[in-house]
Amino acid sequence: MKKKFRIKKSKEFQYVFKKGKSFANRQLVIYYVQKQEQEYFRVGLSVGVKIGNAVTRNRIKRYLRQAFQELNDRIIHPHDIVIIARQPTKNMSYEEIKKSLTHLLYKEYLLKNTNQD
Questions:
Q1: Residue 81 near residue 42 (C-beta atoms within 8 A)
Q2: pTM for the whole thing?
Q3: Furthest-apart CA atoms within the chain: distance in Å
Q4: Carries keyword Ligase (predicted)?
Q5: N or C: which end of the chain has fewer CB within 10 A?
Q6: The 28-34 sheet, strands edge to edge
C-alpha cells in the first residue's frame, strides 16, 4: 500500500476519532469519516501493545494492509478509515481477518456489492 493511502499523523487519527462514525465486531473496530477534498481512501491501522508481541502486531497490520489492497476496487471513495484490532485477531489467519473486515465494511456501506445476481 502506497504511503499516500496511509494515515500516519496523530492529528489525522484524532480527527477521524472525533468527527467520524464507528462500528465494530469482536475482532475489529472501524472509524471512518468522509473526505470530499481527496480522490482516494486512506487507512490508519492501530494494534495495541496488549495484543501479543511486536511480531504478532506487525503480522496483523500486514494482513490488514493486504486485505485493503485486495478490496481497493470495491471500497467507496473518498474516506479516511481507521482500524483498531482487538484481542481475538491475535489468533486469526489472513482469510479470517479479511472476512471480518469485509463484513464490517459491507455492513456500513463502505464496500460496493459486486454480486451479479
A1: yes
A2: 0.87
A3: 44
A4: no
A5: C
A6: 21-24, 28-34, 79-85, 42-47
* Helices within the chain (DSSP H only): 10-19, 54-70, 94-107
- Cis amide bond preceding 88, omega within 30: no
pLDDT digits (tens, 9 = 90+) for 6-60: 899 999 999 999 999 999 999 999 999 998 888 888 999 999 999 999 999 999 9
* Burial class of residue 56, CB neighbours in 10 A (0-12, 13-18, 19+): middle
Q: What is the DSSP string of 44-65?
A: EEEE-TTSS-HHHHHHHHHHHH
| Domains identified in the chain and CATH numbers | 3-107 (3.30.230.10)
Q: What is the Cα–Cα distance from 68 to 3, expressed in whole angstroms?
A: 13
